[in-house]
Write a structure and sequence with these properties.
The structure is a homotrimer. Chain A is of the alpha/beta class. Chain A is 31% helix and 23% strand. Chain A contains 13 helices and 19 strands. Chain A is elongated. Chains in contact: A-B, A-C, B-C. At the B-C interface, α7 of B face α11 of C.
């Protein structure tokens, strides 16, 4: 184990240490040019694999996955555009966004008119290079800022795109942490965006830290972290894991969790899943403003997990949602956009929600007729008549509503007592044999 | 077909043309003296029958219908009151409301004191003649304005009521437009009020126009328009159609739809029927202020359709509700109270609601595991990375929620995308084999 | 029967007479020193038994009751504290709260330091003697005001507590008023607090008056009033009545119903029981501000009736709730804290709620297809056309919603017509054979 891993043990509570470690992972990954397939993904997974145990899967091009086919593998080495004075107008080496994702190789002289249909800009943000791709339609292209585009002069240009699109494979990584039950929590992050720091690396950093920290403790639930290209990756993973999807009881897509915005939690398609309850509880506990979004069938990979045939209980945590911050899918979604303390806050939120998932079970009161006499068990005050203490009140809540229908989180919400206190009271009552777990 | 009918074809979208045609029907019907039975009803149905195919049913007096008995047929030829100077104080020829509905014949001299118990006025609107009737208790009577009543001088009066109450029949009309399924929409309007233009003729005019326009198009649903006397008419119709009421999936009573007020929609007894959803959707789409009323067991014939033994899903559309406008059930509910453009607005609202009923089905996504690859079917953008277009988003909504549980209107409401756009996306997906209809 | 009883007959509607009678009962009971067992309880029940038929049950010490054991019987004759000048610093004869409930006997000289652990005060209300007890842990003690405690000087004190704790029994009383059905209403009040007037005697006074008044009339429901020590009393009663708890359909704990505060009704554990509906309806009818509290598993004996194994539908009526008024469980909860007119208001509220419970049944319309023809039964107006009278509208509501699903209270709420009017309309319709009761 490296020094970095140790620093993320669950007892490291200093947010600035934890946040800094996640930020450094993002810094390490930022220069790598990723796409939905190719060596950039492999390098990214290798870096993650230095921190957590990662099983790498390679799925050959052409494999049928649900309604889709795994595409050929794309690799890019260099790309630039020279004007007729030989000046480099566009240079992939300076920013990987300059090449259209999945661009075919191209080398040759073209006029400006011939070139224009292959140049992609974002006129609404003229200073930034947009992220554009053409995964399933063969094309070649370059991306540049709209202001640079507008300065292009008539004349001939030299295009050079040194890419390859060939049989190969789609690569994804999986970190599995077995718990004492095989109820699974699926955490999904995408690894296919070049450059993008909030919409890509922030999710990777928080998921990696979560996996590290969970690996230090004994968990009731099993946790599966998957690092996949978006859409085709989740479709590939779903296709290969259909027989065991019934074990996935809770799921979370993590993305855009490093910027300065308030939390946005997008509910599962079912709308009231246990992961929704746990995330909403944890969000309330932050005491910070936040927003709940209803499920919609676009966004990130939750749209695949939540397709009607699977309908998995997968929510999505973001700070500023996709498309709602100007830097989204542009060169401005860079390391300046994400902050260590924001990554740390996102991690803490997930940990609190998972604490609820871990501890949120239903019990049966084993002495359900009348209150059990707590005094003879030494867990009741001896002098009566005054207002009862909070810990006693908490026990009475847990005893009364542990009827097989209410989970501890239900009791927490009904009583307005924090989940942690409810959980502690339940532990005490379990020790005295007054509660039995429901299965 | 007359010129008038052609002018109401569904592609005639000019509200002023459509509204004018409906208003002219009301003008044609206004002078006819209607009651719950008799020749006035037959004349009224004849006029309607010139526009739409109408099957006339005659039910003999004395027929047992549910808990009721079809009453004798009433006809009125003339009625007046002369003072002792021979002046006509009250004249049925000027307004049919002047005779008590179902008044027995009467001819003779009476003192003012003898007369008074047979005179009916509305002191709260002293200038107007009220609409009063005594269908099931034999009586004779005349109605007049309260101010005229107060000017009656002591002395003798000559009463003349040339009516007849004899074995005959109750008459109603029915226009049936078969659809491709035998799920039926019942539209019910009453035809029993003399004079009343908003509370009677407006409903007849809009229902007749609706039937005309629906007859031009191929419909999934079957439509049954019934033109009946209120209470005894709906009871008679229900009594004779009990064996096929299970086909009536949606229903609507139309009345008071020509005045200047905002729309009021009274929900079905169930409160959340498909017709409620469709009407509420259509009302929202008007962008105009409107009111929703919960079901109550009084009002119009919905009280019969919604009796607990039948409990049909029948709502009621009004502009200003019964009893909530001063002219209600008085001589002031005349042709000045209704406006062509208001009739046209009511028609348009019903058409929009029926468009929803027609198209609001449930589908199953035939490729429910993960998103289907729309790109290979040519219905996905080729360059990715930017915010997706609305039409793509609409398809994703329809695909994700077409799980057999959600209707297209459910998806429209969940997504805040208009029903028409949802319906169009569904049509495209059906053509690509990605949706199959649920039965 | 005494004069007092007669004055509480249901036709005595003068609140001041009724309130005064209840207040006098509280005055009579106030001087008696009660505890969870002993002669004080017996004397209290004797006084109640002069007004209503009361069956007394004695349960021997040591009897196992659910998870508890009936404790030894405690009796107290005298208790005081003398300082070294022989002055009586504390005197049980002046207020029974001065002795710790269930204090062991004690006689002897002690230093102030030895004494202090046995003295109980309430520093937050330094002028009042607190109510403290040690029922299940053997101890001896005295209670005094905190200001008196602070004036204690160093030196020796003479303690005298003439109590006994011996095998005996726990005593409770039960008044059963059979109705025409064996559906039971359980009214529970505690009889174990010395001195306390609001948190004890107010509940006894209102429950006794309720029983008196209900005994004058023929009831559909059976009423069982139990006068019990809190916690161990309800546990004992539950333990001995487990086989017939299924008959208890509604229940109410009455306490703190004599003070000046607004009503607080604490819902049953189920939250929407018939007693909840009835109490909430009655509270609304008072037109006074009031508060509804959700069930919580502490408070009074409702916590035993509502333990998850029994889950009886027992609510709790209070004015100012336990712990929410400063005098609670102190010597200041005395006869000055309760008012005759507040007791009378509490009684009236319960009577109105019980009127709903008595009359709130479900009917089936026996003529459910269409409206029945009320005219031929003589219960419809003869001249039609004007706005219908309220009594007619009420009948239509009852007929339409008497479908086996809606109770009369449901119909009252849906129609915003008072329960009494709905009940009257139902009675009329029953007489005409148009409603049949559901069982």
């Amino acid at each position: 184990m490296s020094a970095q891993e140790t620093s993320l043990a669950p007892d490291v509570l200093d947010d600035s240490v934890v946040g800094q470690a996640m930020y450094e992972l993002a810094e390490e990954l930022a220069p790598i040019c990723r796409s939905i397939t190719g060596n950039g993904v492999r390098k990214t997974l290798n870096v993650i694999g230095e921190r957590i145990p990662l099983k790498i899967t390679e799925v050959p091009s052409g494999t049928q996955v649900l309604d889709w086919t795994v595409p050929d593998e794309w690799n890019i080495r260099d790309a630039y555009l020279l004007n007729d004075r030989g000046e480099k107008i566009i240079d992939f080496k300076r920013c990987p966004l300059h090449v259209l994702g999945y661009s075919m190789p191209m080398q040759g002289r073209v006029t400006l008119d011939e070139l224009k249909p292959h140049l992609f800009t974002d006129p609404s943000h003229p200073g930034w290079v947009p992220f554009r791709y053409s995964y399933y339609t063969k094309n070649w292209g370059l991306c540049l800022s709209h202001s640079a585009f507008e300065q292009l002069e008539d004349g001939e240009y030299q295009v050079f795109i040194d890419s390859s699109l060939e049989k190969g494979s789609l690569t994804y990584g999986e970190c599995f942490l077995p718990g004492t039950t095989d109820e699974e929590v699926l955490i999904s992050v995408h690894t296919c965006h070049p450059w993008m720091c909030n919409d890509n690396l922030s999710g990777i950093a928080v998921a990696t830290a979560l996996a590290e920290r969970l690996s230090f403790q004994r968990n009731r639930l099993s946790y599966r972290f998957i690092f996949i290209p978006t859409t085709i990756g989740s479709i590939t993973w779903l296709s290969r894991n259909q027989a065991r999807l019934h074990k996935v009881k809770h799921g979370l897509v993590l993305t855009c969790v490093g910027d300065n915005g308030q939390f946005h939690y997008k509910r599962t398609r079912r709308g009231n899943s246990a992961i929704d309850d746990a995330m909403i509880y944890a969000l309330k506990q932050t005491g910070e403003p936040h927003a709940l979004l209803d499920f919609s069938p676009f966004g990130f990979d939750e749209r695949q997990y939540s397709s009607p045939g699977f309908n998995l209980a997968v929510g999505c945590l973001m700070r500023t949602p996709n498309g709602k911050y100007p830097e989204y899918h542009t060169s401005a979604d860079n390391l300046d956009l994400i902050r260590p303390e924001k990554l740390a806050g996102s991690l803490a939120l997930c940990e609190r929600a998972f604490e609820v998932l871990e501890g949120n079970v239903r019990y049966m009161n084993t002495s359900p007729n009348g209150e059990p006499q707590l005094g003879k068990r030494g867990i009741y005050r001896t002098i009566g008549g005054s207002i009862p203490e909070e810990s006693l009140v908490t026990m009475l809540w847990v005893l009364n509503f542990s009827d097989g229908h209410n989970s501890l989180l239900d009791i927490s919400e009904r009583s307005s007592i924090s989940f942690r206190e409810i959980r502690q009271a339940a532990d005490l009552l379990v020790r005295h044999g007054l509660l039995a777990i429901c299965d």
